[in-house]
Amino acid sequence: MPNKLLVATSNKGKLREFKKVLGGIVEIVSPTELSLSPKEIKEGTNYAKNALAKAKAYQDRFDGMICGEDSGLEVDVLGGKPGPLSARYGGEDTSHPEKCRMLLKELEDVPLYERTARFRATIALIDGEEVKTFEGVLEGWVGFEPRGTEGFGYDPIFIPRGFSQSNAELGLVIKNRISHRAKAIRKLAEYLKSR
Ligand code: IMP
């Protein structure tokens, strides 16, 4: 395996997903394994720009391919919010269970058929002089109460289309097969195999 890919994340769950799909194609390394800390970046409201900024934060210290990922939950009745601001919804210091509660409160009077939502993930890959982006989407709806214990973030209140259980009830084996991030990573895998 001649190529190394630095996945610019400190999220162990995300790193595991990348390693699972790309492990046989490139050697995956993480900032933690290389003892690299990121330069401070300012995230905005555009997934692709945020993902690229995350990758660029290591560019001067890593000689190889680097990818960053940015994702969020888009709720239709809220005009696509919280979207790229999902991690900061309700304030950076608010826990995810609290963010889930706040979102459920915002949707208190919204009926089932108007609770449609999706997770979106964008990966930006720096490959030499080139930048490539890969996107994945998981359609579904926001439930009426948090359910399940697996996963992270908004998983307890997100029910993927075609299922009756939340992401957090479905568990990681199913989630890693259907998730927005898994879809984007599989597209990245196709690119890496073809280059
Ligand atoms: P990021 O790590 O800056 O990309 O922030 C992504 C945010 O979107 C997370 O903190 C969660 O709030 C939400 N999010 C993204 N992907 C997922 C997922 O698979 N499950 C639950 N929440 C997610």
Quick tags:
Maf protein; alpha/beta; 195 residues; single chain
Number of strand elements: 7
- Structural class category: alpha/beta
Helix count, DSSP H or I runs of 4 or more residues: 6
Assigned CATH architecture: Alpha-Beta Complex
What does this structure look like?
- With about 200 residues, the chain is an alpha/beta fold.
- Helix content is about 30%, strand content about 25%.
- The protein has helices at about 10-20, 45-55, 95-105, 165-170, 170-180, 180-195; strands spanning about 5, 25-30, 65-75, 80-85, 115-125, 130-140, 160.
- Strands 1, 2, 3, 4, 5, 6 and 7 form a 7-stranded mixed beta sheet that branches.
- The longest helix has 15 residues, at about 180-195.
- It starts with a strand and ends with a helix.
- The model has no long low-confidence stretch (mean pLDDT about 95).
- The protein binds inosinic acid.
SSE arrangement:
Blueprint: E1 4-7, H1 12-22, E2 27-29, H2 47-56, E3 65-75, E4 81-83, H3 96-106, E5 116-127, E6 130-142, E7 158-160, H4 167-170, H5 172-178, H6 180-194
Parallel strand pairs: 1-2, 1-3
Antiparallel strand pairs: 3-4, 3-5, 5-6, 6-7
Helix pairs in contact: 1-6, 5-6
Bound molecules: inosinic acid.
